[in-house]
Amino acid sequence: MSxxxxxxxLVADANHVLVARGVLDAYGHVSMRHPEDPERYLLxxxxxxxxxxxxxxxxxxxxxxxxxxxxxxxxxFIHGEIYRRHPGVHAVVHSHSASMVPFSISRRPLQAVxxxxxxxxxRVPVFEIRDVAGEGSDLLIRSEGLGAALAEALGESAVxxxxxxxxxxxxxxxxQAVHRAVFAExxxxxxxxxxxxxxxxxLTAAEGAAAAESNYGQIRRAWELWRAEVER
Length: 232
Hints:
Shape: globular
CATH class: Alpha Beta
Structural class: alpha+beta
Number of helices: 8
CATH architecture: 3-Layer(aba) Sandwich
Strand content: 5-15%
Strand order of the largest sheet: 3-2-1-4-7-6-5
Distance between the termini: 21 Å
CATH superfamily: Class II aldolase/adducin N-terminal domain
Number of domains: 1
Radius of gyration: 17 Å
């Protein structure tokens, strides 16, 4: 198989893994920067993630246009604008995972409280679409301008919350972005549970950085397990 064929299979499998891990449902999407051309990216057509197969993966330019005539996701601009502004990002996951949304609308920040999510750091940024689109938008990233504003809000973070909408996780590969999306969701559940118990202790910035570096070398183990589970 060619490098491109392998990448397309990777994108399809990532959709299935994220559904199996409870991050995606009928909505949300995952993309990968094109392995042969950094000015393009791979993203499925407008389809529920669990149904995505390799033949459903389309090739987009960074302006989020494609020569494929099949309808694409409305929020494909999330991917194109992040790839345009963050050259170190090679995979993007956008989800509406239920445990993350409360932290997008609460004054309590989402923080790393678990070493498996050390990449979250002391505070996850929140994108407020009203600052760009006013108070009458549908909260969807429907244009390059909105995608650019979201990419700016992401900054150097691994995850950005979208107020009243969901979140985006990025990585230097599909396994890393998927790993971050999964453990950001699990960290959000753990933090919400801890809040219900009273005071809690979050990781320091130094602990988060050290944990993230340590876990980086172990991502492949989780990815291979999750991928094997959905392949079965």
